[in-house]
Amino acid sequence: xxxxxxxxxxxxxxxxxxxxxxxxxxxxxxxxxxxxxxxxxxxxxxxxxxxxxxxxxxxxxxxxxxxxxxxxxxxxxxxxxxxxxxxxxxxxxxxxxxxxxxxxxxxxxxxxxxxxxxxxxxxxxxxxxxxxxxxxxxxxxxxxxxxxxxxx
Amino acid sequence: xxxxxxxxxxxxxxxxxxxxxxxxxxxxxxxxxxxxxxxxxxxxxxxxxxxxxxxxxxxxxxxxxxxxxxxxxxxxxxxxxxxxxxxxxxxxxxxxxxxxxxxxxxxxxxxxxxxxxxxxxxxxxxxxxxxxxxxxxxxxxxxxxxxxxxxxxxxxxxxxxxxxx
Lengths: 152, 165
Fold this sequence. Notes:
The complex is a heterodimer.
Chain A: E1 18-20, E2 25-26, H1 29-38, H2 49-52, H3 64-74, H4 76-79, E3 83-93, E4 103-115, E5 121-131, E6 137-148
Antiparallel strand pairs in A: 1-4, 2-4, 3-6, 4-5, 5-6
Chain B: H1 3-9, E1 27-29, E2 34-35, H2 38-47, H3 58-63, H4 73-88, E3 95-103, E4 112-124, E5 131-142, E6 145-157
Antiparallel strand pairs in B: 1-4, 2-4, 3-6, 4-5, 5-6
């Protein structure tokens, strides 16, 4: 038995492929507050409910870095389990805010797949989207990653 | 003293900067630094469903030629970002986006990251007169070595605007 999957190597990604990843994730207060503090983000908008009541949002909002991490996480078994290295990200945007209790789903398009410097891996460029349970786009971004070729 | 007396008598000790504080070219060496531990990468990877065993299975990571666990790259990004918040964006305004992010190499458990940023662009917001838009180039280093860099853009509250997060 192998520790990782068999359907997510470099050869499995063709430009134009569009995937909906299997799992959704309800982002909880625990997720947002724990990770916000874990990474030393001192912006109270993510952890002071009392102060946020007075704002246009009405509640704490999820730190965008966590939204990005959750969406890429939901896509990661499929697009990162065989990664040897994360290389670059670009065009990261947050069209709608995320609140505690929102459920996120992840979609991925393969933009390109090209040879890398090493023979046992190639570089795949993905475009990821995160969608909430109200069908709003909450995250969009491009990610370049070095992915193992299927062992022969 | 009761709470209302405390509120009335205490002098605020504010944190963060407002839009007027930023000039293109200004550089900030951010506070604290952060050593990334095994607990950090395992907790973060599990909470975010980031299922690459190199981030939470040390034997697997060693099999790939690493000394031990590799820190989840998104955790590297968020930690460098987090260290920059008090200087750059704590005073409030939405996080608009990140461009041109490069992970220069994998980070091993036990490495200590520090962060620094330079203001690269400043402009007014057409839709929000009480806020402006600032872009910074942020670098995360382990010792002197560049580990990650990216450009971040935020809405930032103006000084005379009513305080809000």
